[in-house]
Amino acid sequence: MKQKEILLQILKDMRKITIKENSPEVLSRVILDKMVSYIGCEVGDVLLFNNDLGLLFFQNSIGRDIEVNLADSKNTLPNEALRLGEVKKIGNLSKTEYSSLSKNANSQLAVPIILGGKVYGVLNFESSKVDFFTDSHLEAIEIMSLALGLILE
Fold this sequence. Notes:
about 150 residues; about 25% strand; 4 helices
């Protein structure tokens, strides 16, 4: 299947879930399962925040070797993407000041969930391979981020 067909199928699956169930846990689990599989990375996270209070109200992860609260972890790429409202991509974490929360992560891509100028959360993906994430990966994750933002609004 081509990239556009796969993304379209993921969006259709998201639509079915939002019609059947209004649960961020179920929806985020489906998104993470499909995106981690599609991208081929080992770890995926979705973090959702309450903008008014500035607090994490939801986190779901796939592929983590330990359970962590990404919002409480300082100096991480997801926190930087969230704080700045910008995509953050690192090809080799060992050459940066950012700390990884996975033992084997070497590259990372964090994409904020933004709609109407508000940052609702972040999608974060990690790979054990250096320079793993491509522009195609970024494009796919940005589409999912936008779709998730529309659903959350």
